[in-house]
Amino acid sequence: MKKTLTRKINLPRLLILGCGDVGMRLLPLLRGRFRVFAVTSRPERRDELRALGAVPLLADLDRPATLRRLAGLADYIVHLAPPQADGALDRRTRHLSAILPERARLVYVSTSGVYGDCGGAWIDETRTPAPHNARARRRVDAEQVLRAWAVRARGRLAILRVPGIYGAERLPLKRLQAGTPALREADDVYTNHIHADDLAAIVARALWRGAPNRVYHASDDSELKMGAYFDAVADAHGLARPPRLPREQLRQVVTPALLSFMSESRRLRNGRLKNELGVRLRYPTVAATLAACVKMVS
Question: Which residues pair with 164 in a beta bridge?
């Protein structure tokens, strides 16, 4: 027991911020390679985090004073926390950047929404961000803040731009059950996906193999429009397919936030993910994912 504890203490330290669903999937992949510290603002989550081998730390990215104890704690950092829900800047990432150590290795999970609408074009990581909404603008701000830290502190930063995350527990079943309409084929947009388990594995890969200040698309191989995705989920779960409407009619029956989500079309190339990080996707397409999800819940 004493030898096991000594080995664990001597492992390199890793700090996770934003340890939600993807973070919980990531923890088993890190066991035995790091001594993991997981930040939570909710005391009731401490036992859950301990059960997966992490040391829970109470802190809040919205309260900078609570982050002081994290300064210099770990040389490896995974930043999964989303920005706050308002403003043009990501205040949470700015608070975090103030306590990041020099020469640390950091993986930041961003969003493919930073590109805005690309008219359905295939894009790679050299595409200039052009965010269309405040959520995506906050993500661009976070990327810029972390890039500045990496240059200033000689840190090693990998940015993962992530599309829609899904899995057995992350499918739009409530939306389908509610009969929320989708766009007709002529108006529909291309959407991109990644299975939550694959994303956790990509984060782990980026920790070890990510090039300095490099962006990667954490996306699967699917080439799919949004309506076709909803149809596939409905078919797999024996639900009615959503009705299809022209964009102008849809505008009258869905929220502005949902309409914004349905107004951006792009297809992400993932060559860097495979060639540089050496990722082999467990769920390379939506069809493979849905088949696995149905099997898991049946």
Answer: 193
Does residue 229 lie in a domain region? no
pLDDT at position 8, please? 62
Q: How far apart are the C-alpha atoms of 175 and 75, rounded to whole Å?
A: 41
Structural domain includes residue 259: no
Backbone phi, psi, residue 92, to 5°: -65, -45
Dist. CA 283–CA 133, nearest whole Å: 30
Strands (E), 135-264: 156-162, 164-166, 182-183, 190-191, 193-195, 214-217, 224-225, 244-245
Q: How is residue 173 written in tokens?
A: 């079943």
Are 239 and 175 in contact by the 8 Å Cβ rule? The answer is: no
State which H helix or E strand residue 48 sits in.
helix 46-51
Please calculate the CA angle 159-165-167 and round it to the nearest 5 degrees: 140
Q: Nearest-CA neighbor of 202 among 153, 268, 150, 144?
A: 268
CATH code for the domain in which residue 68 is found: 3.40.50.720
119-172: pLDDT as tens digits: 999 999 999 999 999 999 999 999 999 999 999 999 999 999 999 999 988 999
Instruction: Dump pLDDT digits (tens) for 185-242.
Output: 999 999 999 999 999 999 999 999 999 999 999 999 999 999 999 999 999 999 999 9
> Which residue range forms the structural domain that includes residue 100?
8-166+194-220+269-281
Domain-embedded: residue 243: no
Into how many domains does the chain fold?
A: 1
58 within some domain: yes
